[in-house]
From TrEMBL, chains A, B:
The species this protein was found in: Gracilibacillus pellucidus
Protein name: NADP-dependent oxidoreductase
Taxonomy of the source species: Bacteria, Bacillati, Bacillota, Bacilli, Bacillales
Superkingdom of this protein's organism: Bacteria
Length: 338, 338
């Protein structure tokens, strides 16, 4: 049996290209005692992966050159030498961009096939949903009647943040990059307002109009000039969870703009970066809450699912074009018994 | 009896000048029932006053044009029509740059003449000491063995922050603007390291050498390029209380530099602006702790006291030259019974 893998061929400066990646094939390693051979079904592509492609200090180690790009995968057990897993089980792991993997028992976790489509375990019930849950509730702490602004609002994390903020009784304003996304946020997800930053000439004015009572929580996925504009509308004691700064990831030069210190002092505002791993001990709590809201119909999600292992790099590059709505992932194979 | 006052004559752009201020004289208003006539002894000049001279939204209302510049004053009761105050009492108030004031009972507070020199109630036992106490302990939360870096370290707030951090068992590194200040921090206040940013060509390297275990808490008084350099040395879960950004106050253009979001995400770091008023309910706790440390000899302070009401504007302008060590204030009159 052949395992297809995608390796990091070289470290990108600026936007990654096809040459950043290299496809290789190797024999699948047969599982030994305590190991499980799995076959990938859905592979996740996420913005944070861009950060791991460069060799700089960060919250996770950089990818090694000529090693497989790791990240979330939903997979099916093909062969088990462990009494914890059975052929046909569906599992989640972090082994990344490859069609097969021989996992140790501790490297994968069984998921419930009945609760929702399998792909949601990489999205709304997985990393992106939990990122929204902990970042918003632990740092943003939205109160009933407060105004929550979200950048990258139609993305996988942003769309969950807005819905959770609404569940908590906040007024929710999203910023996104197309009229289609704006319509999705307002009509499908019930955002109170949404702004297309690409067609808005004055973001400060647009935000002031959309947030007549100012901004209490700003969930920041993008950084850059969009965030500069939101910072002008902060209320006293505003909270700013920083989830990412996708606008800067592919910059070749420095990410330069207005320094934030004076604004933070004037508003007694808080800005805090985070990564999901900070909350690892509380994942069961977060997953349970997300699953319940999903079941109750309070939380909806959208996925953009591309097909085919060979399309993983292109799908990853799509993240930075801002064209996708919701969680972006790649379907690599059908589940056997579906 | 004549009251001398200093008014805001016009709003400065860039560094204030003598023309920013106007001296006027008026008759002292005799106290009515419930009022107290006081005579100023020490007048405080503080960096935050620069912010109030412009008409922009901030945590305190801007000064009105042609009104007295308000701020902390230690004064002596000249005549009391209140049963809460007696002639000769020493009080603290916020009525600002004038030689006399007719206060309502609620506008002034009696201070203990015995505990320490009267001037300390504007400094280490007053606004600056409390600012250090709450900003460091409530936001910075230094733990034993952690590294705390302080900019504007030889200033009134910074020098108190460093000493409190040492009381809490942290390693303390100060950044200041002269060799004299560096010597003061290391030899008088017991800082572990101090850096003269004016003679250091590479602040990043200097900080890396002074903080071999990285930076856990950065108490920021200055903003600007000094802070940019400190941000390169942050540890995971670092905390950054933002007390002020004196480097930017007199800028005519925008305060532009590297955006901070990516750093905050990579380090799961927290940055929070604050002003002392946020902690008003807890002033008694802070004052008691500061007084105790002072009495125990764990906390020392330095003051730069200029003489003469007419020198208040020049002394205020000295703040931005960075020449003073410790708390800067102006002695306006001797206490009667000293």
């Amino acid at each position: 049996m052949i395992n297809q893998q995608i390796l990091l061929a070289n470290r990108p400066t600026g936007t990654p290209t096809k040459q950043t990646f290299k496809f290789v094939e190797s024999d699948v390693k047969q599982p030994e005692q305590g190991e499980i051979l799995v076959r990938s079904l859905y592979v996740s592509v996420d913005p944070y992966m861009r950060g791991r492609m460069v060799d700089a200090p960060s919250y996770v180690a950089p990818y090694e050159l000529n090693e497989v790009i790791t990240g979330g995968v939903v997979a099916e057990v093909v062969e088990s030498q462990s009494d914890k897993f059975t052929k046909g089980d569906v599992v989640i792991g972090s082994y990344g961009w490859q069609t097969h993997y021989t996992a140790k028992e501790t490297e994968i976790r069984k998921i419930d096939k009945e609760i929702a489509p399998l792909s949601t375990h990489l999205g709304i019930l997985g990393m992106t949903g939990l990122t929204a849950y902990f970042g918003l509730l632990e740092i943003g702490k939205p109160q009933e009647g407060e105004t929550v602004v979200i950048s990258g609002a139609a993305g996988a994390v942003g769309s969950a943040v807005g819905q959770i903020a609404r569940i908590k009784g906040a007024r929710v304003v999203g910023i996104a990059g197309s009229d289609e996304k704006v319509q999705y946020l307002k009509e499908e997800l019930g955002f109170d307002e949404a702004i297309n930053y690409k067609t808005t000439t004055n973001m400060v004015d647009a935000l002031a109009a959309a947030c007549p009572n100012g901004v209490d929580v700003y969930f920041d996925n993008v950084g850059g000039e969009i965030s500069d504009a939101v910072h002008t509308q902060l209320n006293r004691f505003a909270r700013i969870p920083i989830c990412g700064a996708i606008s800067s990831y592919n910059l070749k030069g420095e990410d330069v703009g207005p320094r934030i210190q004076t604004t933070l002092v004037k508003k007694s505002a808080l800005m805090q970066g985070f990564t999901l791993g900070n909350y690892a001990e509380r994942f069961p709590e977060g997953s349970a809450a997300l699953a319940q809201w999903l079941t109750e119909g309070k939380l909806s999600y959208q996925e953009t699912i591309k097909e085919g292992f060979e399309n993983i790099p292109d799908t990853f590059l799509d993240l930075f074009k801002g064209t996708n709505i919701g969680k972006l992932l790649v379907k690599v194979a059908d589940v056997t018994n579906e």
